[in-house]
Amino acid sequence: MKKIFSLFLFATSLLVINSLSAKTGKEKLVGKTGSLIEKASKEPVNTKEPGVAKEPVNTKEPGNIKVGESVKTNTIGADSSNNNTTAAFYKSHIKRFINLQDIYVGVGGGFIKSSETFNMPFSKGISLNGSYGVAMIDKYLILEFNNNLEFMFNPNMDWYSRAFTLPKSLIKGVNMGFDEEFDMGVHVVIAGSRKVTFTAGPVAGGRLTILPSMVYSHRLYYVSVPISVSYGLKTNLFVGDKFYCFAQYSNTLTTSMVSFASQASTDAPANEHRIPVNFGLLRLGVGYVLKPWW
Across the beta sheet with 219-223, what order do the strands follow? Predict the structure, then answer.
């Protein structure tokens, strides 16, 4: 009986000791785990991935701009060549300040002189000029339209004597001639400043010329009315922003005209023959620059 009681006490003692040692080990494990968790929470967390550069984050919003803080705005267009000064086609743009308007209307008048005297019906005259110009390509070119209304004086009696097949002594009462030319041209701005601008360029268009007729011994002498292509060269000199002067050489493709002489009888056909003619002339004039009203 004593042996059984002793074995019972010994077994009970082992159970108690085993229970106490297990409790102590559990408390140590819990304490160590808590220390590791606490240490990990205190250390900074590195979210940077290997090989990836961290981009700066702009947390400033447009609504959070402080008063008095300078704000830079981009006034250049969306073209990359304009934004990048190192681009292959980048070119800094400098605005040209010259006295030439983008659109102008000119009204003026001047003097005309024939380029030669032998085949020219008239040698002198006056001209009324109207022009409309549009500046292009940053005022390096001008598209100009011109209308010239001309009254021709000082008739060449040698030419009319050959045209009417009459001696000069019988030619009486030859009145003035009339000329209308409309042309357009492209001018190059050769030199320009805020005070003076000089342009020059070719012109082309059309011209209608009406020459006078004459009655002698119940017969009517007259020449045809030619409508021909005109060509030439014109220069403009703009002084300030109100005045300009111009010089223009103009000629036509017409090199001969048909002259007529009626017969005494109305049933008889008119006599006609061809005569050489030259319509080359030089215009010199001044004008006033108007701003368009549209």
Answer: 214-216, 219-223, 256-261, 271-276
Q: Which residue has the tokens 């609504």?
A: 63
pTM above 0.90, yes or no: no
Q: Which residues of 63-102 are buried (b: 16+ CB within 10 A; e: fewer)?
A: eeeeeeeeeeeeeeeeeeeeeeeeeeeeeeeeeeebbbbe
Measure the CA angle with vertex 212, ends 211 and 217; round to 5°: 140
Helix and strand numbers (H, E) in the chain are 3, 12
Amino acid of residue 205: G
The rounded distance, in Å, linking the Cα atoms of 160 and 168 is 8
List the structure tokens of 255. Answer: 């090199």
**Hey, what's the torsion of the CAs at 246, 129, 177, 226, to 10 degrees?**
90
Contact 232, 249 (CB under 8 A): yes
Q: Give me the phi and psi of 146, to 5 degrees please.
A: -130, 145
Tens of pLDDT, residues 86-109: 445 444 555 678 888 899 999 999
In this structure, how many other beta carbons lie within 10 angstroms of the beta carbon of residue 278? 19
What are the pLDDT digits (tens) for 121-133?
999 999 999 999 9
Question: Which residue is it, tokens 């030419």?
Answer: 159
